[in-house]
Amino acid sequence: MTPWAYPKLFAHRGGGRLAPENTLAAMKAGERAGFRAVEFDAKLSADGVVMLMHDDTLERTTSGRGAFATYAHEDLERLDAGTWFNASFANEPIPRMSSVMRFLHANGMNANIEIKPCPGREVETGERVAAIAKEITRQQLAKPLLSSFSVDALRAAARSAPSLPCALLVEYYTPLCDPVLEELRCVSLHCAHQSVSADMLKHLHQKKLRVLTYTVNDVETATRLFRLGVDGIFTDALPEMAAKFPQALTA
Length: 251
Ligand code: G3P
Ligand code: MG
Fold this sequence. Notes:
The chain has 251 residues and is an alpha/beta fold. 32% of the residues lie in helices and 17% in strands.
């Protein structure tokens, strides 16, 4: 296995259940909870700015309406992405990826950037995310890990920033993933924790790939997965996981 720069625990969407997902407040909550690695979702505004957002539509997590991809970044930045979670986060904005990366680096943290393109913008999103990640990490030792469910987005990212590590994100691993894992020289496979098996771990470890699983929110399941040989988990249960696995907070 090649050296691995990441902790076993990643704070899902920045701060898990502690703060509104994919905001700077979430990153700060993750940092305060002791996490040194976060996962977040990145997509493109209509005018090509990479911002953090999970859904293709604005309703669930912001004060906006309609499709994320139809708004320019200035309009997206005016939305309230905090109140849906709790009134104490009112007016928390949708952040740009570049601001979040600066915060993470200033606090000695690393990231798994999940490239989450809006439909039809796979290649452009992969390229932009990779370009920002490459530029921001040029002087840094810690490289963010780029992942995506979209092979087109991941391929575009890998082409734009061949020095950054890539991970294929799937719900269930099948051997049909192998050609993509090889083509993109992925360092890890990320899958739903329900789909992990000892055989699959053995097969992927033999191929020198790490296996990370989402989204693991109880310590019993995390204990079982770590014993089985899983290399990392994404979690929303930050205080519980930090208390149970303090050694997994750092690389
Ligand atoms: O990257 C792991 C996980 O975040 C994938 O699922 O829907 O939470 O982005 P989702
Ligand atoms: Mg995600």
